[in-house]
Amino acid sequence: EDQVTQSPEALRLQEGESSSLNCSYTVSGLRGLFWYRQDPGKGPEFLFTLYSAGEEKEKERLKATLTKKESFLHITAPKPEDSATYLCAVQARNAGGTSYGKLTFGQGTILTVHP
Amino acid sequence: SQTIHQWPATLVQPVGSPLSLECTVEGTSNPNLYWYRQAAGRGLQLLFYSVGIGQISSEVPQNLSASRPQDRQFILSSKKLLLSDSGFYLCAWSPLGTGGGNQPQHFGDGTRLSIL
Fold this sequence. Notes:
The complex is a heterodimer. Chain A is an all-beta fold.
């Protein structure tokens, strides 16, 4: 069974204090790893897709990296507007059945950035 | 550009009442469609997915059902709601492809359902 574990559950940072969020995964053949941002009362907003170990993607103050067992979301010099829940999800290679397009999500990391 | 709409945004229903939540997608054809439930402080649980009109797959046994009467319309229903059906319901779509593989899913803003 595919599993995704995110840590820490919650992270409090001061504005400008860089840090990283972790996403550890177990999957029977990775098709893709996805990062989302979710604001309170809203649906998740897509950030990045990573496909293979060693790949990196960047967007403003965020950079996502991928190894064979985990992914990191690095936040450089965060601002209060970066406060949100960050979700990680994996998609396994199609097993020819119910795994078709299915994403398995972690529980998320709640990030709070204080001014 | 593609957009996804869900309604209503919030809903309060008594136990035993019926339910109908609707989701529509604009700006794309033949999308894969998904219904998720998110409990407070927890990740997303996939409930149903659909790869075409009338084609519904269920991921977990439950009190809910789904239907896809049109290409870009996805409906979540229940005949009699239970207290345990409370939660945040999210609809999502992904482009048609090899099972939507490698393509991100894009989410609506959800329906907050409270059962009294």
